[in-house]
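Here is the promised in-class demo. Please do not try to memorize the tokens; focus on the logic of going from shape to residues.
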């Protein structure tokens, strides 16, 4: 199949493109770097010509409320229009577990708009909701710091390795459209503070960690359901300690 990956040069996109090419598909990494801009529509018609599947793993460069809504609204509408013109048979999008429970955040309100546009577009589709990535534990620590103390929620999370996300996406992309949603997560459910604290310790970050139920996660107060999947989640195999050991070796 010819598969166009929007956001194909990012963390997930480049791994997905590699996986699909190994399976023998013609996988095209589309991004502003390659002259394809879903927000403005630039290059979409040419990129989607002859495509069987379009996968949207692009993310907004800004998380400010108005900017992130504008990004997902414009890019999704442009993709849908270009896909209809090109006769694309399957639209796949990466989203986030807990999106409907995190509507206090402009980012997650924008993701819900994206999901609703896809579901109502009339194109066969699959939405893959993933939990937080292992790779973002450092970013969580950075955004949770105040006066050199890292304030973290004890709420449960079930994060996942980006490589497992890319592998699961490849399975969905090459299968029959779900016309619905599937959730994916890693194998371990533990407090957010424990995952981030472990990452900090293993990466030599000696700042003290304060665990507080009111500590915000990107501006949102969490509970144990906020970031955790439903019971029918597809669980991927990579454990956090194994991923951490490999990432430290690479570093």
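The designed amino acids, position by position:
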């Amino acid at each position: 199949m010819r598969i166009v990956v929007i956001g194909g040069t990012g963390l997930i996109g480049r791994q997905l493109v590699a996986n699909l090419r190994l399976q023998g598909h013609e996988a095209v990494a589309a991004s502003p770097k390659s002259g394809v801009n879903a927000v403005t529509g630039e290059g979409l018609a040419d990129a989607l010509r002859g495509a069987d599947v379009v996968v949207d793993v692009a993310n907004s460069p800004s998380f400010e409320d108005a900017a992130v809504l504008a990004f997902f609204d414009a890019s999704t509408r442009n993709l849908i229009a270009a896909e209809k013109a090109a006769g694309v048979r399957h639209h796949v999008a990466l989203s986030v577990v807990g999106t409907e429970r995190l509507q206090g955040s402009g980012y997650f309100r924008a993701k819900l708009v994206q999901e609703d546009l896809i579901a109502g577009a009339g194109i066969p589709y699959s939405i893959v909701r993933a939990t937080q990535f292992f790779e973002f534990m450092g970013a969580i620590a950075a955004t949770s710091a105040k006066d050199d103390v890292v304030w973290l929620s004890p709420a449960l999370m079930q994060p996942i390795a980006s490589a497992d996300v890319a592998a699961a996406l490849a399975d969905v992309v090459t299968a029959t459209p779900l016309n619905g949603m599937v959730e994916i997560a890693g194998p371990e459910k533990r407090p957010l503070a424990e995952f981030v604290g472990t990452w900090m310790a293993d990466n030599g970050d000696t700042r003290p960690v304060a665990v507080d139920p009111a500590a915000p996660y990107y501006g949102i107060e969490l509970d144990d359901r906020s970031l955790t999947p439903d019971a029918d989640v597809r669980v991927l195999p990579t454990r956090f300690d194994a991923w951490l050991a490999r990432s430290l070796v690479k570093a």
